[in-house]
């Protein structure tokens, strides 16, 4: 059976055109590996562009760090139920995109799961008490976020509400980094912020970028990359139950929590989504994972997106628009 999931990059050997090379730069930010692969004939230009990009993603991380009291998002959370707070343009834009996906997915994606997220500890392997989850679920509802664009303010209407932007921030950052390196003079490349990938322009051999799809349940002697899609000027994001998880009592507990139950969603092993907007792609991957294949594909179709979903039994579901564009590397 073919197993498909999380995106990684595949680089085949190629002859560069007009002296262009693919120069890779890496950095740790937003608690993940950030990789820039930039097409240029100048090492100096690649260095300048990557420094500017890494500075920007570090700024965004400081702005939205859920676990740091001094971040803008933490200050907003502290004001919940008290008064609106003026926020930066990036925070306003990101929350607005998040609410759009929350509305379209009927709450499957919800940034107000902060109080629930705090209960789960995937390092200490702690399953929260059911009573604690039920108590905090009353604080989870994206409809209680009030935006005032004219005054650049956001208000969390219930005391104790907390928003966590972890399910959309990396995608948003990938789009910002593309703009920064493009402004520096890089015309093509690929940005990878963890499992959120943005490809733009063409490779140094004038071919499309190839994004690999990985087996989420690797078996002995199995190929890590199971399939691939070729694309440009599009974004790819994956959500999977293998990213942060622990096993307790033979049950897998992972970090992708259903906003309606407070427990890990159980309909999906992983979901890969393709869309033009990196932030939307990031949030959609989470929403589709929570919804499962049937409702997930309906959501993707409604938003002109493509996707590859592995359900809880290992069966693969693919949107019609991408079925003939998947390259099977290993069966």
Give a short overview.
With 331 residues, the protein is of the alpha+beta class.
What does this structure look like?
With 331 residues, this protein is of the alpha+beta class. It has a domain at 7-44 and 188-328: Roll (T-fold), CATH 3.10.520.10. It has 8 helices and 17 strands. It has an 8-stranded antiparallel beta sheet, covered by helices on one side. It has a 4-stranded antiparallel beta sheet with strand order 1-9-10-17, with no helix packed on it. Strands 4-6-5 form a 3-stranded antiparallel beta sheet, with no helix packed on it. β15 (306-311) and β16 form a beta hairpin. α3 runs parallel beside α7 (278-291), α6 runs antiparallel to α7 (278-291) and α7 (278-291) runs antiparallel to α8. The termini are close together. Residues 1-8 and 11-15 have low confidence and may be disordered.
Strand arrangement within the widest β-sheet reads 2-3-7-8-11-14-15-16
Main beta sheet strand tally, sense and closure? 8 strands, antiparallel
What CATH calls the topology of one domain is T-fold
What is the straight-line distance between the termini?
7 Å
SSE order: EEEHHEHHHEEHEEEEEEEEHHEEE
Mean pLDDT: 91
Please state the overall shape, judged from the principal axes of the Cα atoms: globular
- Give the strand content: 25-35%
Helix content: 25-40%
Q: Given this structure, which CATH class of one domain is correct?
A: Alpha Beta
In the CATH classification, which architecture of one domain applies? Roll
Name the structural class. Answer: alpha+beta
Q: In DSSP terms, counting alpha (H) and pi (I) runs of 4 or more, how many helices? A: 8
**What Rg is obtained from the alpha carbons, in whole angstroms?**
20 Å
- Low-confidence spans: pLDDT under 50, at least 5 residues? 1-8, 11-15
Give the total of beta strands. Answer: 17
CATH homologous superfamily heading of one domain: ApbE-like domains
């Amino acid at each position: 059976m073919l197993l498909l999931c999380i995106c990684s990059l595949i680089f085949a050997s190629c002859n560069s055109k007009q002296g262009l090379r693919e120069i890779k730069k890496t950095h740790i930010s937003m608690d993940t590996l950030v990789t820039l692969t930039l097409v240029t004939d100048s090492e100096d230009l690649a260095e300048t562009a990557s420094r500017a990009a890494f500075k920007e993603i570090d700024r965004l991380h400081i702005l939205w760090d859920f676990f740091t009291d001094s971040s803008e998002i933490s200050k907003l959370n502290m004001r919940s139920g008290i008064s609106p707070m003026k926020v930066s343009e990036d925070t306003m834009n990101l929350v607005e995109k998040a609410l759009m996906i929350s509305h379209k997915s009927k709450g499957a994606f919800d940034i107000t799961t902060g109080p629930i997220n705090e209960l789960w500890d995937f390092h200490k392997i702690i399953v929260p008490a059911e009573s604690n989850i039920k108590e905090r679920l009353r604080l989870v509802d994206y409809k209680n976020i009030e935006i005032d664009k004219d005054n650049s303010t956001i208000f969390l209407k219930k005391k104790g509400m907390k928003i966590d932007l972890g399910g959309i921030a990396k995608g948003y950052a990938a789009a910002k980094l593309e703009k920064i390196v493009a402004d520096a003079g890089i015309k093509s490349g690929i940005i990878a912020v963890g499992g959120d990938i943005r490809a733009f322009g063409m490779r140094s051999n004038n071919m499309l970028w190839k994004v690999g799809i990985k087996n989420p349940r690797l078996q002995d002697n199995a190929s890590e990359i199971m399939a691939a899609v070729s694309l440009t000027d599009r974004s790819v994001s994956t959500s999977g139950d293998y990213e942060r998880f622990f096993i307790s009592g033979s049950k897998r507990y992972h970090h992708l929590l259903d906003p309606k139950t407070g427990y890990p969603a159980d309909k999906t092993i992983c979901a890969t989504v393709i869309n033009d907007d990196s932030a939307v792609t990031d949030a959609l991957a989470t929403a589709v994972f929570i919804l499962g294949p049937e409702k997930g594909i309906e959501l993707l179709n409604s938003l002109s997106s493509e996707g590859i979903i592995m359900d809880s039994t290992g069966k693969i579901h693919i949107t019609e628009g991408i079925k003939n564009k998947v390259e099977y590397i290993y069966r």
